[in-house]
């Protein structure tokens, strides 16, 4: 039964509430990013990555620029253990990258973890135990003191074992299930763990506060983090880290507010892959900074390729609307958005604008490996002339007169509406060709010539009813002469109101596209031609005349 009365708040407020974080505007200093793709991300995959896939993922993370990577839960499986041995034994960890391994605060798992990292020049050992009221009562059946003791015993053992290995071992502690834990109690455990580790400014420890399950709104998390930030022991010797999940859909806000509140490090995954609704998406966080002019110290210039590789390794598909990385996030289908984007892009080009400020597109798709041809504007029945004109111009170099573009807009919209689907740029070009270039049901142009070089006297060869006919006309110029020949032969009068023409390429051999609009009985009829300059304009006129209703 759908019954909200079954639920109650499952979070705790800190004993004193302060909201200094609200006064800060945005993330100005890049936090330390720690990727947990190979651990928390992997933990959430129906088919966890195999060794080769993990090694490829590690390399991908290194290439993006991560300097801290949680590579494994070595106590979990042989594959996790082997990953560490492979990375360490084959010297695959760059000097500026620190690996992290996670362990429950349980003796045999801690010992196995240290076996896994033997020989690593540098590593973070991440110790955790669950501290929430619900888990103390239901899972462990232990008191606050007893659960705290699990953490302290773990901290002692981790310190002992670290002293026995050669590498530079840093410590991290997480009060797992923090959102369901009394905040003062969580702080007390963290400070007691720090009392054992005795971090120094030169050898800092990490205290990592997760929203293991996101139970509250982001401002609650920020207030909790601010409280911990202000009351943490050894503060100058501790890196305060956060690890947001996304159960309420606020992982990104949790992370941003958490950093405003004093966190210096953020754990998360690419594309937000992780337990249940995921970990915080580090791409979104980094790109949020980037799009305000800050260097996120991670490079997503090839995000399209990163996504494809990630999808292959994890067998998870990134949603089309995932911020920054989804297939459709730069794409406008709707007419008014397309109109503004197309005008914004034109303005940008014509005015040589340096900063990015195109309406409806927060970052330049090019920066993330996307393109303007296929990513920005796509056409369906919600689209308008602006978008359709943009597709023709960007993909085919065809610029239509305003009113013709409008007519083309309605024709294209109708096709999409009737077929009930999106139209590709090729299909849009096809619609244009069919309706404005090839539309000659009543007569077709075969040939033309001007008498003895005089452009004011034209002879046209037309095909009508399967027969070639020759017609002549005189005028003030070439097109006028041709138009008069048509008018006289068909005994029809119209006004040639619009005539535009442009080259379809940069060199002198490039074809030309002509557009002609003729007014007849209060209506505009349009035609286009693609050929050499003269033939293109005659073709355009022939199409426009073929549209006149009295010709039928
Ligand atoms: C929020 C997070 O993401 S935390 C990370 C979670 N990640 C994972 O769990 C992935 C890897 N985990 C694993 O492979 C396994 O769970 C292992 C290898 C760690 C442990 O496996 P098992 O020993 O079979 O235990 P399992 O996980 O099924 O059960 C947990 C048992 O450990 C106990 N336990 C859990 N944490 C602790 C702790 N810190 N100290 C003592 N006991 C603990 C539980 O109470 C339970 O005890 P029970 O056997 O008496 O019922
Ligand atoms: C172990 C911790 C950091 C964790 O993964 C979580 O609480 O989500």
TrEMBL record:
Cite a GO CC annotation. cytoplasm
Specify the protein name.
2-isopropylmalate synthase
The UniProt entry, under PANTHER family, shows: 2-ISOPROPYLMALATE SYNTHASE, PTHR46911
Q: What is its main location?
A: cytoplasm
Q: Which organism is it from?
A: Salicibibacter cibarius
Question: What does the function comment of this entry state?
Answer: Catalyzes the condensation of the acetyl group of acetyl-CoA with 3-methyl-2-oxobutanoate (2-ketoisovalerate) to form 3-carboxy-3-hydroxy-4-methylpentanoate (2-isopropylmalate).
Please give the catalytic activity noted in the UniProt record: 3-methyl-2-oxobutanoate + acetyl-CoA + H2O = (2S)-2-isopropylmalate + CoA + H(+)
GO: which molecular function terms?
A: 2-isopropylmalate synthase activity; acetyl-CoA C-acetyltransferase activity; magnesium ion binding
């Amino acid at each position: 039964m759908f019954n909200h009365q079954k639920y109650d708040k499952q979070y705790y407020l800190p004993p004193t509430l302060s909201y200094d974080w609200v006064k800060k505007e945005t993330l100005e200093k890049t936090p330390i990013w720690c990727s947990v793709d190979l651990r928390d991300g992997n933990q959430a995959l129906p088919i966890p990555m195999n060794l080769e896939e993990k090694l490829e993922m590690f390399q991908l993370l290194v290439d993006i620029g991560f300097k801290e990577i949680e590579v494994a839960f070595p106590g979990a499986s042989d594959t996790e253990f082997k990953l560490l041995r492979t990375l360490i034994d084959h010297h695959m960890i760059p000097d500026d990258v620190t690996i992290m391994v996670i362990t429950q605060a349980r003796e045999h798992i801690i010992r196995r973890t240290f076996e896994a990292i033997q020989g690593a020049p540098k590593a973070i050992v991440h110790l955790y135990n669950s501290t929430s009221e619900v888990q103390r009562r239901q899972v462990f059946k232990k008191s606050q003191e007893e659960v705290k003791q699990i953490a302290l015993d773990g901290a002692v053992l981790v310190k002992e074992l670290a002293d026995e290995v050669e590498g530079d071992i840093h410590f991290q502690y997480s009060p797992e299930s923090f959102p369901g834990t009394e905040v003062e109690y969580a702080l007390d455990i963290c400070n007691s763990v720090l009392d054992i580790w005795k971090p120094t400014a030169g050898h800092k420890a990490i205290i990592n506060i997760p929203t293991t399950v996101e139970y509250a709104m982001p401002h609650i998390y920020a207030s909790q983090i601010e409280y911990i930030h202000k009351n943490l022991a050894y503060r100058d010797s501790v890196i305060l880290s956060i690890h947001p999940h996304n159960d309420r859909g606020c992982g990104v806000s949790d992370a941003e507010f958490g950093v405003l509140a004093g966190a210096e490090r953020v754990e998360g995954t690419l594309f937000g892959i992780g337990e249940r609704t995921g970990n915080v998406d580090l791409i979104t966080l980094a790109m949020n900074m980037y799009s305000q002019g800050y260097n996120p110290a991670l490079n997503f210039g090839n995000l399209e390729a990163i996504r494809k590789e990630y999808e292959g390794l994890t067998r998870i598909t990134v949603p089309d609307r995932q911020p920054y990385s989804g297939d459709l996030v730069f794409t406008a289908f709707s007419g008014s958005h397309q109109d503004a984007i197309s005008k914004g892009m034109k303005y940008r080009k014509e005015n040589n604008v340096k900063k990015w400020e195109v309406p409806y597109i927060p970052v330049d798709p090019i920066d993330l490996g996307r393109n303007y041809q296929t990513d920005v504007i796509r056409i369906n029945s919600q689209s308008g002339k602006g978008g359709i004109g943009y597709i023709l111009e960007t993909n085919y170099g065809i610029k239509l007169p305003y009113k013709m573009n409008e007519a083309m807009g309605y024709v294209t919209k109708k096709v999409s509406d009737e077929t009930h689907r999106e139209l590709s740029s090729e299909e849009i070009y096809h619609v244009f060709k069919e309706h404005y270039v090839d539309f000659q049901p009543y007569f077709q142009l075969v040939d033309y010539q001007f008498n003895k070089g005089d452009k004011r006297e034209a002879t046209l060869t037309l095909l009508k009813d399967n027969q070639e006919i020759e017609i002549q006309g005189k005028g003030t110029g070439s097109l006028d002469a041709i138009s008069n020949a048509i008018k006289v032969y068909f005994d029809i009068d119209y006004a040639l109101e619009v005539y535009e023409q442009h080259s379809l390429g940069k060199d002198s051999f490039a074809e030309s596209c002509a557009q002609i609009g003729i007014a007849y009985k209060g209506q505009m009829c349009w035609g286009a031609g693609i050929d050499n300059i003269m033939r293109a304009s005659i073709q355009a006129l022939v199409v426009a005349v073929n549209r006149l209703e009295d010709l039928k």
